[in-house]
Amino acid sequence: MLRRTLVPVIGLTLAVAATSVAAPALLKWPPWISIESPVNPFDASTRGAAFLVHAMLREGTPAMGDVTGTAEGLVNGARKTIPLRIDKTSHPGVFAVSKQWPAEGTWLLRISFHSTTALVAIDRNGNVGGATIPTRTLSGSNDQVPRSVTASEIDTMLASAAKQ
Asked: Tell me, what's the pLDDT at 26?
């Protein structure tokens, strides 16, 4: 009778041990951001923003200095970079970006949060035309994780947008 009791316990222990080793890989996720546009005009803490950045961590709340950005532009054939001021809002993990780039030229905004970068396209009217987060596939799975963005990628995207 003692054997019957031990076998299920050992089997359960091995199952729990296997689950605890595999579970962290399934539960972990990288820092993530999403772009919100248009912005709610009825929220006083976001009024006047060109767009909002929602920053998310698996654990904890993103801090003000965690989100950075630059406006990357092509103006009269010359490449320009303008550091962006990121403002806090009344919502934890949500940050506001006001229009800080000139109307002339073609602009692409680079918003970074730890290892995650969003590329925000600005249309001819100065509004958010779209946003993307470049990703790569993890080897051995279908999981997509953020990847770094090179300066040549931004140059190529700007040149392509300027031709349109």
From this structure: 44
Whole-structure pTM value: 0.79
Cα 136 to Cα 27: distance, rounded to the nearest angstrom: 18
The amino acid at 160: S
Looking up residue 115, the CATH number of its domain turns out to be: 2.60.40
The 3-class secondary structure across 55-114, one letter per residue, is EECCCCCCCHHHEEEEEEEEECCEEEEEECCCEECCCCCEEEECCCCCCCCEEEEEEEEC
Give domain status of residue 4, yes or no: no
pLDDT of residue 27: 45
Alpha-carbon dihedral of residues 12, 13, 15, 21, nearest 10 degrees? Answer: 160
Is residue 19, in this structure, part of any structural domain at all? no
Q: Which residues of the chain have pLDDT under 70?
A: 1-27
